[in-house]
Amino acid sequence: xxxxxxxxxxxxxxxxSKVLQSLTLKFNESVFWCDSTIVLGWLSMTPSNLKxxxxxxxxxxQDIVGGDCWRYVPSAENPADLVSxxxxxxxxxxxxxxxxxxxxxxxxxxxxxxxPRSHDKSTLPETVRIFHVNVDGENVISTLFNRCSNFNxxxxxxxxxxxxxxxxxxxxxxxxxxxxxxxxxxxxxxLILKICQQESFPEEYNLLTSGKLLPxxxxxxxxxxxxxxxxxxxxxxxxxxxxxxxxxxxPVLLCSSNRICNLIFQMFHHKLFHAGPQLLLASIRHHYWPxxxxxxxxxxxxxxxxxSRIKANTIQPIMGNLPVQRLHLEFPFLDTGVDYAxxxxxxxxxxxxxxxVKSFICVFVCLATRAVHLELVSDMTKEAFLAALNRFxxxxxxxxxxxxDNGSTFVGAFNxxxxxxxxxxxxxxxxxxxxxxxxxxxxxxxxxxxxxxxxSTKYHLKRILSLTYLTFEEMATCLIQIESILNSRPLxxxxxxxxxxxxLTPAHFLIGRSLLTLPxxxxxxxxxxxxxxxxxIEYLKQHFWNRFSNEYVLxxxxxxxxxxxTREELKEGALVxxxxxxxxxxxxxMGRVIRVLPGSDGVARVADIRTRKGVLRRAFKTICPLPLQ
Length: 629
Description:
By secondary structure, the chain is α/β, with parallel strands linked by helices. The chain has helices spanning 2-22, 37-43, 52-64, 80-84, 89-93, 96-100, 137-145, 151-169, 182-200, 202-209, 246-249, 259-271, 277-284, 293-303, 305-311, 324-327, 382-396, 408-423, 448-465, 472-486, 506-510, 526-529, 533-555, and strands at 32-34, 70-72, 226-227, 233-234, 252-255, 288-291, 335-347, 356-366, 372-377, 401-404, 435-438, 575-578, 589-598, 604-611, 614-619, 623-625.
């Protein structure tokens, strides 16, 4: 209810401002009346002491009409109550309160109703409580521990605070000015260490201060602790007769769970040029003896951003399920993956004095049968790829779906096809029924099938060509022979039983037999000989499909690698580094994950990351999580 009355007061202030803008008359004074003591109390307060909902509206009312022109009216004398509470028409017609207003308006302002003094503004709702806390010097220093992230800066801040307190107690001629001295820095260090030990070991510090012995089962008893001249706990140990420095023989005792100990480890880690945990702990023990220091040294090294960027431990999710295009066979090359291999050098003509030019291999792979189709192209332009695609369609048939990476060649070809289809031009040259799909950026493992085909093609080329440079026609002939070899590879393990069927190869789905075997008639059952010719072809087709589903598909059930996720699942809001092989690790982009995209199996492998270059979509294989969140 107080909020509704506040909104009514705001509406009245806005209406007053609108009327003044519409009329040419000028008023010397405007008075606003309200029967809500809560709203009047809010209007007399500073808006910063109120909660957001009330603060915004009170600020607007004070900006429009001010807060001093609001007066209190009792509910019995408020004409607005006649409407809000309801009044019959015959009573309203004879109501002097409605037609003439309250009677006190005809009298002097000194006798107008006043705001009830019994209301305390501090008890009003929607107010913000302000606490005033008095702290002593040591508590002020302890609050700096959680606000400062650099030990050297903290030491200098404490030194300046100590100098200020000392100067306040001295006369002008004896005060200290200028840069900090070594003595002041040492005193501030001793003060910080003393407060740190009082927080970490309060019971032990009180016992040692009072000159008492530690309990028999105390955790510090094996270190023989004692207080030095600066009231700092040091390790007694057994090196008192050694020739080492005093800090090495009796290091300062610290607890690894304290904030100061964390800052000291971070300072030494940077001072030692990002040393590893062993060197870090060994160097710190020349000055301090941290309890649980080995774990803290590992934690400090692990949480260092630069060390994490250099190590570049990416996330590797578990191997996903095979897509439906790998498991469903209708026709060869109906679902096709494409990639480029090369460049390879070819001779522009035969004989001596020939010039070497670059050429590339366009690799088409059937996702279901793993059949390979190779095309030699002269460059990586979209026009050359569209020409190779036309040759592929003329020999293998139109594909339904083409998968590729985000290469500019494939993206340009896709845009070219989309533009042709949109303008309805030259549809006879390009079939409109092809759908392009691109894998995420910088994720070659998403296209492992065509990457494997590229590797196999290069395997044979390196052994055939050696240092020989072929012409374009000779290279095209060589690639076709390599294509036949790749299409004759068995898809399933070869049996040692001579009576078993011939191993299934991609060529069986192309021509009905392996490309490397001599043609021979099919061995069929007696019932097959009576079939007609087209029925026999359909029978052979079904035979290969049965072998594909019974032998090859079941062989794909096993996960060859990535049996489990190497790291925990990446969550939204995590700080990551994007791995880029074209730049050094310290130049990699940093970003924060804003969304993860789970796959069909519920495992996320791709995420959207906000960086200084905008929002980028990257696979987990290229993301290095950072320990700082």
